[in-house]
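Escalated from tier 1: iron/sulfur cluster holo job.
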Amino acid sequence: MAFNFANQLITWHAEHGRTGMPWQNTRDPYAIWVSEIMLQQTQVSAVSERYQRFLKRFPTLKSLAKAPIDDVMALWSGLGYYSRARNLHRCAQIIMVEYGGEFPRTREALESLPGIGRSTAGAIAAFAYEERSPILDANVKRVLSRFHGIEGDLQDQKTIKELWLKAEAQLPSVTAKMPTYTQALMDFGATWCTPRQPKCLEAHAQCPMTRHCTAYKTKRVNEIPAKKKKSASPSFQTSIFLIQCGEFILLERRAPKAIWGGLYSLIELPWEAQSKDITLMTVRNARKILSKTLLGDKALEIDYKQIMSVQTGSVIQHIFSHRRLQMYPYLVSLNKKWHVSDPSLMWVKRKDLAEIGLPQPIRIFLESSSR
Ligand code: SF4
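Tier 2 regenerated the structure:
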């Protein structure tokens, strides 16, 4: 009998597919959408608990659309790639207004929504509506490039176009198989045809694709897909200000397009390329540095007489996917709260920090600074 990629994968899945993930076995497009967005660039282990918490807090599209964005950001805090949370919220509002609260039912309509790319739209349409729409996430790109021996760079548009054609051509002909096939492809890429230790290279090669996989047959499994050339991550530095008065801390909401956009954080200086020079602030030069940082456009009424002390804290290192950041913290204690009129600034009680969406390194720093 002729080899059929989809059927082979579905048979494999019955025995080896992942089980016990909280987003499996649902046809609810809302729940599928939330899981697909959370799983982008994030490990399954990091998502499981967050996903359940998110659905508990926002069980329906309507509840998400109605929620204040700050609540959504707070729940997303620590997951990274915050534009995903902003897009989820915006998308829920668009579906409520433009689609009467009903999730769009085709890949094309789904793809027109913010934050939903072609592969995510394909996954939602396949899982929720059994649409014959392919997916092409990073794992699937690897599986298909190996299986078909496609050697091009996976970032290259020409290679991506070729992979989409293969993904489309391999779909099951029976639509009812789409949810299982799509899950099987995801599971196979995540657990068997992995970047470094695919099952076919183990002592007892057990991949069901070996007889038809081009990379395996031509002994190029380690060469396909082409390895990305690593470029050095740029390093930045900044100063951050923990301005506190008794139990209150001054926080600033970050601009939507900034890194950690929409989250609250400490007031900071603009990031600069890392150098050895950083002017450390002391009580003596506090006035100059705080003026430079806080006066400008922040509409803070600063009374320097209210500064009781300025201390430096240990440098915080944070590594993003494509850059590094060193933050030099200053702990500025006031005897009276400065008046704030800028809506992006707010005084928050330490005990309420758990309810606020903060970047993870800032949350850790604030927790350690309270001990
Ligand atoms: S034979 Fe190896 S490279 Fe080919 S699909 Fe199986 S695990 Fe992946």
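The CA atoms of residues 132 and 174 lie 8 Å apart.
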